[in-house]
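REQUEST FORM: STRUCTURE PREDICTION
Request ID: SP-0412
Submitted by: Lab K.M.
Chain count: 1
Length (residues): 97
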Amino acid sequence: MIHETSHLTEVEEVSALNFLFKSLKFLAVSVLHSIKYMNVTGMNGIVIGSVMPWVEVIALQNGANSLLTVEYQTTTILGESRVKWIHPFEYAKNWKE
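STATUS: Completed
RESULT:
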């Protein structure tokens, strides 16, 4: 097994992770406010790029009917059938349908 070595000190790594957490928290709050403002209740939507399906969860919790996630990696939410996944190449191939 190959392990990547970090050139950052432990303090720098913690600082970088702290910055990342604050950035993600800001993004999540922004998405939540946008979804509430647009009132997605009963709507179907698409999420482009979603390694972790947090946008999908926020949309579903706020009444979205169904979502299509376009992502290179298979994305699933356990126990949730309203989110479908498609690979970007497959989506591009079938975009007219």
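NOTES: Helices lie at 10-38, 54-61, 88-93.
Reviewed by: T.R.
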